[in-house]
C-alpha cells in the first residue's frame, strides 16, 4: 500500500508511477541486491548480506514503518532506500543512510529521499535534552561524486573524515610486546559481556562522536549490534587484563564486509589509565599475528582520521596505510550545546 507523502518531490515520483512506502522484512533480498550494486559502483565490491541486514532492521527502537522509505518502480524493482537512525538516547545526531540504484541516479530519487529523511530527523528534537544541539548526519566514500554532490546540494556541511586502513601480510608480523603486569585472554561470553561493554564505553569516551548514553539503553543496543549483527569471532576477541581490570580490548571478524580475504578489526580500545604504554600496539599486533596464522593476506580497520588518542600513528606503526577515505556531512536541526565529545 502506498504511503501518502507531503513532500512535493515524492508526489512527482508517485505521479511517474513509483511506489513510495516503508520497508518491511519481505523487502530484505531486493534491498540487499540493490545495496550491493551501489557498493560495486562506490568501492568496487559488494558489502551486504541478507542475514546481517535482517538483524540491522530488527535493531531495538528501529521502526521500519517510521524510519524507512523505499522507492519502487512500476515493475516492482527497489531503486531507492532511505533510513533514519536515532535509536540511542539522547538522539542528538540522527544518522541518515540511503542508497539509490546506480542506473536510477539523476532522477530526483536521492533528493526526495533526503528531503523526507531530514524532516523525519526533526522528530528527534523533542526527545533531546533541553538546550542541546541536534544535527542530522550522513556520509559517503570520498571518491563517489554522486553522493557527495547530493549532500552538498542539500546544504550539508563537511565535518569529518574517516579512513579504512589496511596492512598486507607479506611476511610474518612482529610479535606483541606486552607492558609489565598485563596478561591477555579471550573473552568469555556471557560472563565478561557487561564488563567488556563498560570498559569499551569508557575507552571511547574521548573519541570524536561519543555521546553519553544511559547504561541500560546503551548496553541493550551494544549487545544487539555486537552479537546479532557484527558477530565477532570469540577466538579473535582479546582482553588485556591488569589483574581483574580490563585495561584494553580488541575484537575482530574473520572477514570484512567487502573482502573475504581481509580480516577486520571491529574494535580496538585502551582505557585511559593504561595508555601510552604500548598496549594498543600490542593488541593490534596480537590480532594481526592471529590473522597471519590463519592465512589471511591482509587486515583492515576503520578510524577517525583526526583521532586525538593517536590511533592513526599507532596503526601506521603496525604497517597500515590508508585504503579509502569517507566523509561525514551534517545539517543542523537545532542550535544549542553540543553534547558529543570533540
Q: Layout of helices and strands, plus pairs?
A:
Elements: H1 8-15, E1 19-21, H2 28-43, H3 50-57, H4 64-67, E2 68-72, E3 78-85, E4 95-100, H5 109-121, E5 134-141, H6 145-153, E6 157-168, E7 183-186, H7 193-203, H8 215-230, E8 237-242, E9 245-253, E10 262-270, H9 279-293, E11 298-304, H10 311-317, E12 321-334
Parallel strand pairs: 10-11
Antiparallel strand pairs: 1-2, 2-3, 3-4, 5-12, 6-11, 6-12, 7-8, 8-9, 9-10
Question: What's this, in brief?
Answer:
With 342 residues, this protein is of the alpha+beta class. It has helices at residues 8-15, 28-43, 50-57, 64-67, 109-121, 145-153, 193-203, 215-230, 279-293, 311-317, and strands at residues 19-21, 68-72, 78-85, 95-100, 134-141, 157-168, 183-186, 237-242, 245-253, 262-270, 298-304, 321-334.
Amino acid at each position: 500500500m502506498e504511503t501518502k507523502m507531503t513532500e512535493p518531490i515524492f508526489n512527482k515520483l508517485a505521479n511517474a508511477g513509483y511506489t513510495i512506502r516503508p520497508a518491511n522484512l519481505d523487502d530484505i533480498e531486493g534491498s540487499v541486491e540493490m545495496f550491493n550494486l551501489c557498493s560495486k559502483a562506490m568501492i568496487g565490491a559488494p558489502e551486504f548480506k541478507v542475514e546481517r541486514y535482517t538483524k540491522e532492521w530488527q535493531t531495538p527502537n528501529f521502526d521500519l514503518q517510521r524510519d524507512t522509505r523505499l522507492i519502487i518502480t512500476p515493475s516492482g524493482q527497489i531503486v531507492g532506500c532511505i533510513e533514519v537512525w536515532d535509536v540511542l538516547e539522547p538522539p542528538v545526531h540522527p544518522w541518515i543512510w540511503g542508497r539509490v540504484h546506480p542506473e536510477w541516479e539523476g532522477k530526483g530519487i536521492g533528493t526526495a529521499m533526503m528531503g523526507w529523511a531530514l524532516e523525519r530527523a526533526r522528530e528527534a528534537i523533542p526527545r533531546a535534552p533541553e538546550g542541546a544541539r541536534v544535527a542530522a548526519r550522513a556520509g559517503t566514500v570520498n571518491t563517489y561524486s554522486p553522493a557527495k554532490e547530493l549532500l552538498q546540494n542539500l546544504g550539508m556541511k563537511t565535518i569529518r573524515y574517516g579512513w579504512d586502513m589496511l596492512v598486507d601480510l607479506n611476511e610474518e608480523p612482529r610479535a606483541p610486546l606486552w607492558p609489565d603486569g598485563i596478561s591477555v585472554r579471550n573473552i568469555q561470553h556471557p560472563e565478561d559481556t557487561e564488563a567488556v561493554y563498560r570498559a569499551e564505553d569508557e575507552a571511547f569516551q574521548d573519541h570524536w562522536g561519543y555521546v553519553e548514553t544511559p547504561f541500560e539503553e546503551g548496553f541493550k543496543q551494544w549487545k544487539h549490534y555486537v552479537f546479532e549483527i557484527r558477530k565477532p569471532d570469540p577466538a579473535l576477541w582479546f582482553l588485556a587484563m591488569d589483574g581483574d581490570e580490563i585495561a584494553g580490548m580488541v575484537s575482530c571478524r574473520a572477514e570484512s564486509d567487502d573482502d573475504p580475504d581481509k580480516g577486520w578489526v571491529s574494535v580496538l580500545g585502551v582505557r585511559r589509565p593504561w595508555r601510552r604504554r604500548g598496549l594498543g600496539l600490542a593488541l593490534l599486533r596480537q590480532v594481526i599475528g592471529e590473522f597471519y596464522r590463519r592465512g589471511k593476506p591482509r587486515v583492515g580497520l576503520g578510524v577517525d582520521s583526526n583521532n586525538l588518542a593517536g590511533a592513526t600513528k599507532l596503526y601506521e606503526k603496525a604497517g597500515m596505510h590508508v585504503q579509502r577515505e569517507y566523509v561525514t556531512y551534517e545539517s543542523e536541526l537545532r542550535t544549542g550545546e553540543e553534547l558529543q565529545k570533540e
